[in-house]
Write a structure and sequence with these properties.
With about 525 residues, this protein is α/β, with parallel strands linked by helices. It is built from 19 helices and 16 strands. The radius of gyration is 39 Å and the shape is elongated. The N terminus is likely disordered. This is Sigma-54-dependent Fis family transcriptional regulator.
């Protein structure tokens, strides 16, 4: 009769829970203050574990963090737990994780008889009684588990402490998530800074030509593979620059890049150059010296104009490519070398193989990956871009100082030339213009004069300035008497340009005229004049 009514009992319970929560929040005030603004994951983990152990009045503890998928727990920090015991707890934590994933606060006061913990040797060895595992969850995911234990049989957690630990779990999970997010942002920023600080390995190869851009994409893919590369192309197209880019973009970027032109290798000195020599290996060899392969160990060896090597020296090179060992001149022992070879040649090596001037075995060893760099005349759209690039690159060397620029007519004329020496010749032309031409516009006469001085009387440039029509196409000055009155050098210059345009357009006159920047009728007139001059 004197009992408390149901509603009054519920009210008292709610009030008690509210008081417990208020007291728990008061207990957690130092934790929230310590975590405020702390975005360092290691520091956050230390703060959480130390507060959990203090709240529970436990003697030991460990905090386990899950991986990105929450599928596995790994120890992040432990207090008073030895290394072997931590391994045991890591094994136990796999079971804990499955229960913690459901948000279950695991607590036992009799670990010696609890199926979850009794198999752990440390529980028996240290007479562990109270064990608690507190799941740390955020957004429906388990981020980790706080483990703590104690040997006292009487150890128990009051309702207030349990409530405080549950609140701690929520605060801790949010702090860990924030710290991890901050860490990911820092890592992403670091990577972005590295990308900005690290130039594109292929950025030095200036081009807008679709075929050349595709070649660079292929080269970038090849760079990641640790295979030998053969680069084919005429002199001056940029084979060495391409090799440098492949090295920078490849797995051996931190290793050396050693370059040598095989055209400059005297046949009787090739072994010493490639493989080095031992002390006393020959007269005058007072100390040992490593060869190109030893210097390029764990890096890249760029062999330019490899097609110029004699058959005998190719055979010596083949042994290194096959076996990965070199024997210095005068030595009786082999040296292991780990080298990626990038070879280049302006020769058609497959034709050289058929002619017996190149070893077939060596050819197939070094052309695992093959790149063909087109000559400048086949990508004439790059000429204006490269000319501008070289003007900017070498502007500091201009004498006198001041801006130089090629006129549209000069650029159109330059696009019709066959460019022996390719990009190298174009760069040299630009450097001559900067050194010898006054600031201002550089027209066709100036270009032709510089090319004449640079290359001499060759079909490349012609001797007398040609007129350039509005379209930018070359137009020979007419003289009385028809085609025969053109100078022989003018005729030859025009013949080269017309022949190249017809070759590139597969004999299509309309296409050739488009390449030359003239009307089809003009091209036909030139062809008649050239035929009449023969």
């Amino acid at each position: 009769a004197g009992g408390i009514a149901g509603p009054d009992l519920r009210l008292l319970l709610e009030q008690a829970q509210a008081r417990a929560t208020a007291q728990a929040l008061e207990e957690l005030q130092p934790l929230t203050q310590a975590l405020a603004g702390d975005l360092d994951l290691d520091s956050v983990v230390r703060t959480i574990l130390d507060h959990a152990i203090r709240l529970a009045r436990a003697e030991r503890g460990a905090l386990f963090l899950g991986d990105s998928r929450g599928a596995r727990l790994r120890p992040a920090l432990a207090r008073n737990v030895a290394g072997e015991e931590l391994k045991e707890l890591s094994r136990v934590s796999l079971t804990i994780l499955r229960q913690a994933a459901a948000g279950q606060f695991i607590l036992t006061y009799d670990a010696l008889h609890d199926p979850l913990f009794r198999e752990a040797p440390s529980v028996r060895a240290q007479n562990i009684r109270m064990v608690a595992c507190l799941p740390l969850r955020a957004a429906g995911r388990t981020l980790g588990v706080v483990y703590f234990d104690g040997p006292r049989e009487t150890t128990s957690l009051t309702e207030q402490v349990r409530r405080a630990l549950e609140l701690l779990a929520g605060i801790a999970a949010a702090a860990i998530e924030n710290a991890r997010l901050h860490g990911r942002v820092l890592l992403q920023n670091k990577r972005l800074r590295e990308q900005l600080d690290t130039p594109d390995p292929f950025g030095a190869l200036v081009t807008i030509d679709p075929g050349m851009l595709e070649l660079l994409r292929t080269a970038a893919q090849m760079a990641r593979l640790d295979h030998h590369v053969l680069v084919l192309g005429e002199s001056g197209v940029g084979k060495e620059m391409l090799a440098q880019a492949i090295h920078r973009a490849g797995p051996r970027a931190k290793g050396p890049l050693v370059a040598h032109n095989c055209a400059n290798v005297p046949p009787d000195l090739a072994e010493d150059l490639f493989f080095g020599h031992a002390r006393g290996g020959f007269t005058g060899a007072h100390k040992p010296r490593g060869g190109l392969f030893q210097r390029a160990h764990r890096g890249v060896l760029f062999l330019d104009e490899i097609g110029e090597l004699s058959i005998e020296n190719q055979a010596k090179l083949l042994r290194v490519v096959d076996d990965g060992v070199v024997r210095p001149v005068g030595s009786d022992r082999d040296i292991q070398v780990d080298v990626r070879i990038i070879a280049a040649t302006s020769r058609d090596l497959s034709r050289e193989v058929r002619a017996g001037r190149c070893l077939e075995a060596l050819y197939f060893r070094i052309c695992v990956l093959l790149l063909r760099v087109p000559p400048l005349r086949e990508r004439d759209g790059d000429i204006p871009v490269l000319a501008k690039h070289f003007l900017e690159k070498h502007a500091a060397s201009a004498m006198p100082a001041g801006e130089r620029r090629f006129t549209p007519e000069a650029l159109a004329y330059m696009r019709t030339l066959p460019w022996p020496g390719n990009v190298r010749t174009l760069e040299t032309l630009v450097r001559r213009v900067l050194a010898l031409q006054p600031p201002g516009a550089v027209g066709v006469p100036e270009v032709r004069r510089q090319l004449d001085d640079l290359l001499g009387a060759t079909p490349f440039s012609g001797a007398e300035p040609a007129h350039i029509g509005a379209s930018g196409a070359p137009r020979l000055r007419a003289r009385s008497g028809g085609a025969g009155s053109y100078s022989p050098r003018e005729q030859e210059a025009l013949r080269v340009r017309v022949s190249e345009a017809l070759r590139r357009s597969s004999g299509n006159k309309t296409g050739a005229a488009r390449l030359l920047g003239c009307h089809r009728n003009t091209l036909q007139r030139w062809l008649r004049e050239l035929d009449g001059a023969d």
